TrEMBL record, chain A:
Membrane topology: Multi-pass membrane protein
Name the record gives this protein: ABC transporter permease
Keywords: Cell membrane, Membrane, Transmembrane, Transmembrane helix
Source organism of the structure: Aminipila terrae
Single GO MF annotation: transmembrane transporter activity
Any one Gene Ontology cellular component term annotated for this protein: plasma membrane
TrEMBL record, chain B:
Protein name: ABC transporter permease
Organism listed in the record: Aminipila terrae
Location within or outside the cell: Cell membrane
Molecular functions per Gene Ontology: transmembrane transporter activity
Pfam families, alphabetized: BPD_transp_2
Spans traversing the lipid bilayer: 12-32, 39-61, 67-88, 95-116, 154-171, 202-223, 278-297
A single cellular component GO annotation: plasma membrane
Membrane topology, record value: Multi-pass membrane protein
Length: 357, 305
């Protein structure tokens, strides 16, 4: 019976999410028809652009891999009902410290891949830990503190980059070249898809097991659903908050490390890359479930690449996609409420069924 | 060190403190009115950005800075109105919707700017107007003080007037009382036969109007054009300023000034070979410290009760 209820609910929430996505795409089409001189071509580019070349399709996959890291990170943190958006800073500084470790230390070849990744993960964990501990200890609002923290991390990172690992021979502000042993190798020739995607998939599995198959993961979800209940049932709320934020931060930081080691030869971001916010969008689309993150990530990446193709060959700027994303987030969160109501109705029905029989 | 003190007490520095405080003060008031109604508007950041562009476009097409300001205010209300409808009618989480609107503002402004000018970064191609500076008679003749208090942008004085009007509105009018009650004891408002949702809707629209003025100041006072992502976190800093000001208009003015001071100091310190990246992170660091101290104090107070 319970399983049946859960299935019904899952079906309802996926149906409403898909409806939200369809509505936002329709809005996109309407906007294109208004602003484009050649709407047919623009819409077709948006929808099929990713398939126009092997390179574009590869970009969808590698971008989805990046979104998976930050998406999973946000899922873990949001599951604890903490609006910690420091994944953005964690990703940035994780990448930066991984690059610093790879370029400054003489790491033996056998460890040259692992050490920068560990450094990236630890860096990310520490960053997301800060809003977590401030919330747990002092009840400081994590949304505000993590927003501020992202700026601090950006400027601190730029300072360190400029002072310690800047390559003076290079034209722009960038780190030294990463040694070959610290680069993640390519997976599919002629595309940007690299072996980092394997790490992303493993992370999805680990975080699913963590959230749904371990006691700590259960505590995280209970805390997220009802803080008072978590308190009364003897869950150490402060500890669970800290663990979930550390875990989410580590995933984001590792994502940053994999990004710089797989996609670039040097660290050269001079502003926050925005992948943390993409992670928020992915997590919302995935209903904070890590196992659905890859699907949501591929979908978002597909839209982004499609929009790029559309902007390159037509007259509609790719920023159109930010409007669509916002509509999607709003509609999905609105339907999340709908599914909550639906759940209540189902439970009520089930209870009356029980009384009748 | 003496040099730093000299800078801080220079007329130019105090003048710049007032200039950089103005948008923070607008944003703080916008957040304050929403917070008092019990719906914290973290979308102020995006609202200001959209209004900043609307002001530039409006003033360019009407060739009148004040009409530009009006259009910025109306745009701010409309943008906040979207948040209000999403949260109050569709029942979305107010934080998530506001995050969505902030993300959208960043892209939407570039989208519109590109369609109008073919440029994705700045609005220099639009012949937009600037809100004038105001020289106050009598005060402008006072030595030193006159140089600081007079000759500021008209919107800076409008910010002060708005603050006074907002205090009167919140504490001396019936609607203002309902707004405060909607934040503290929504049941009481319902008991009085007034819809909490309507009161919150009103508060969010007011919040949008004030944020709209802040946006207009950014592109028609602080700078004389729109640039991509020009609000640059001021809406978020204001969240902390409002929290530190405990939602009280007077205290919020002081905390806005504190952040304005930190911001101005960050730019001034660059003269002394302190790396600019480090000085630029100071206001954000200060925000976290202030937020934590405030929250810790509140927590202690609650434990005593």
């Amino acid at each position: 019976m319970r399983e049946k209820l859960q299935n019904k609910n899952l079906w309802f929430s996926s149906a409403t999410t898909i409806l939200a996505v369809v509505i936002s795409l329709l809005i996109a089409f309407i906007l294109i028809m208004i602003f484009s001189d050649n709407p047919g071509a623009s819409i077709s580019d948006l929808l099929t652009g990713p398939f126009s070349s092997k390179r574009n399709l590869g970009n969808v996959i590698s971008m989805a891999s990046t979104f998976t890291f930050t998406g999973v990170a946000i899922c873990i943190m949001f599951q604890a009902s903490l609006f910690n958006v420091a994944a953005e800073g964690a990703f940035f500084l994780g990448a930066m410290f991984a690059a610093a470790a790879a370029t400054l230390w003489n790491i033996p070849v056998g460890l040259a891949l692992v050490v920068p990744m560990v450094i990236g993960a630890v860096t990310g964990a520490i960053i997301c830990f800060i809003p977590g501990i401030l919330k747990a200890k002092f009840n400081a609002d994590e949304l505000v503190s993590s927003l501020m923290l992202n700026y601090i991390v950006l400027y601190l990172g730029l300072y360190l980059l400029n002072t310690y690992i800047r390559d003076p021979q290079f034209g722009a502000l960038a780190s030294y070249q990463l040694p070959a042993a610290s680069k993640i190798s390519n997976l599919i020739q002629g595309t940007s898809v690299n072996n980092g995607i394997i790490i992303a998939i493993i992370l999805v599995i680990i975080s699913y097991v963590f959230l749904y198959r371990t006691k700590t993961g259960y505590s995280v979800r209970v805390l997220g659903q009802n803080k008072d209940y978590a308190n009364y049932s003897g869950i150490k709320v402060a500890k669970v908050i800290v663990i979930s934020q550390l875990a989410g931060g580590a995933v984001a930081g590792l994502g940053g490390a994999v990004e710089v080691m797989g996609m670039y030869g040097r660290f050269q971001w001079t502003s926050l890359p925005g992948y943390g916010w993409d992670g928020v969008i992915v997590a919302i689309l995935a209903g904070n479930k890590p196992q659905i993150v890859p699907v949501a990530a591929i979908f978002l990446a597909y839209l982004r690449i499609g929009a790029n193709v559309m902007a390159r060959s037509g007259d509609v700027p790719s920023e159109l996609i930010t409007v669509i994303q916002a509509v999607m987030i709003i509609l999905v969160t609105a339907s999340a409420l709908l599914s909550h109501i639906k759940k209540k109705i189902i439970i009520k029905e089930a209870l009356s069924d029980g009384q009748n029989s | 060190m003496d040099k730093i003190v000299d800078v801080i007490f220079s007329i130019a520095f105090l003048d710049s403190v007032i200039r950089v405080t103005t948008p923070i003060l607008f944003a703080t008031m916008a957040i304050l009115v929403s917070d008092r109604a019990g719906v914290l508007n973290i979308g102020v950041e995006g609202t200001m950005l959209v209004s900043a562009l609307a002001g530039v476009i409006g003033s360019a097409f009407t060739q009148n800075a004040w009409l530009g300001l009006l259009i910025a205010i109306l745009t701010g209300m409309a943008y906040s109105g979207i948040l209000a409808v999403c949260h109050l009618k569709l029942g979305t989480d107010v934080f998530l919707s506001a995050i969505a609107l902030n993300l959208m503002a960043s892209g939407l402004t570039v989208f519109v700017l590109y369609l109008l000018t073919g440029d994705k970064g700045v609005s220099t191609k639009l012949p937009s107007k600037v809100i004038p500076n105001v020289h106050i008679p009598v005060i402008k003749d006072i030595p030193v003080l006159g140089d600081i208090l007079s000759g500021q942008n008209a919107l800076t004085y409008i910010a002060i007037i708005t603050l006074i009007l907002l205090s009167i509105f919140l504490y001396k009018t019936r609607t203002g009382t309902y707004i405060r009650a909607a934040g503290e004891l929504p049941q009481a408002v319902e008991t009085a036969g007034v819809s909490v949702k309507k009161i919150r809707m009103l508060a969010l629209l007011l919040s949008g109007a004030i944020a709209g003025m802040g946006g207009a100041f950014m592109s028609m006072g602080y700078l004389s054009m729109f640039t991509k992502d020009m609000v640059a976190g001021r809406g978020f800093i204001a969240l902390a300023a409002e929290a530190m000001g405990r939602g009280l208009p007077g205290l919020s003015l002081l905390s806005s000034l504190l952040f304005g001071f930190a911001d101005a100091l960050a730019s001034s310190l660059q003269i002394f070979n302190i790396p600019s990246q480090l000085t630029r992170l100071v206001p954000y660091l200060l925000t976290i410290v202030a937020l934590t101290i405030y929250a810790a104090g509140e927590q202690k107070k609650r434990k005593k009760l």
